[in-house]
Amino acid sequence: MDWDDLRIFLAVARAESLSGAGRRLGMDASTVGRRILRLEQAVGATLFAKTPQGYALTAEGSRLVAPAEAAETATAAAAEATRRETGISGQLRIGAPDGCANYLLPQVARGLCDAHPGLEVQIVALPRVVNLSKREADMAITVSPPDTGRLTVQRLADYHLHLAGHRDYLARHAPIRDLSDLRRHRMIGYIPDMIFDRELDYLSETGVETAAISSNSVAVQMQALRAGAGLGIVHDFALPFAPGLIPVLADRIALTRSFWLLRHADDRASRRLSVLAEALAQGLRAEIARLESVVGALPDRCT
Fold this sequence. Notes:
Elements: H1 3-15, H2 18-25, H3 29-43, E1 48-51, E2 54-57, H4 59-82, E3 90-96, H5 98-103, H6 105-115, E4 119-125, E5 139-142, E6 151-166, H7 167-172, E7 187-189, E8 213-214, H8 218-226, E9 231-235, E10 245-247, E11 254-264, H9 271-295
Parallel strand pairs: 3-4, 3-5, 7-8, 7-9
Antiparallel strand pairs: 1-2, 5-11, 6-9, 6-10, 6-11
Helix pairs in contact: 1-2, 1-3, 1-4, 2-3, 6-9
Family: Belongs to the LysR transcriptional regulatory family.
Pfam families: HTH_1, LysR_substrate
Protein name: LysR family transcriptional regulator
């Protein structure tokens, strides 16, 4: 059995389509289909069933996943063992919620690429948890540890959030002296039924039940705040990127959350990924500390 065919098999199993696997592998869909047919002929079984939703594993295909993943791990370990120690190269794909992806990971990626010039860093910003079982990424950053899955979990760092509004909005609207005053103000937050992690339910901590403007994207919420559209909960590390935003009632509305790093359990033996994971963790902690120190100099707007 050809390992390269198994590699293509895993890509289809994870993408659940020939075209998705082809994009990941840099191959056209027809070639992927021919290689899957060749593998099915080699093993004497149908590995996928074509459905309206895509390519679903058959019972025989499901049984092949574990040995194929073991071959994948062994191949990666062999490549790693022969790689020169002068630097780490190749692709690293990191999945993260868009607040982290927008305001932290670009700077961290710069540090990784400076240290390893042959490295290619891909940042996947998604309004959901990245699926490592389908190999959507090599590692993922989340805002809460998972309850299930074959994953290694590492706590990265705490970060802080406060209520904030643009100075233009605050100048045009009623003073804010207490939490009860917030009911007279327009709030910006997440779309309630698209909050994919309970830790992102920030608005409930302000005492205001609904947002007048909402989005599943932190970046969109930030743009609305910069436009003077209302008040919203903001990551402290994002405030330096938004001149004009001022903390409001900072002593009464102060949230703390944590970032967690997830890796597939099979990757624990990979020295390459372990080195990159540690560098990512150190870079993220340093960047949060640097950006949050800037926020300490901002005035609290309570009137």
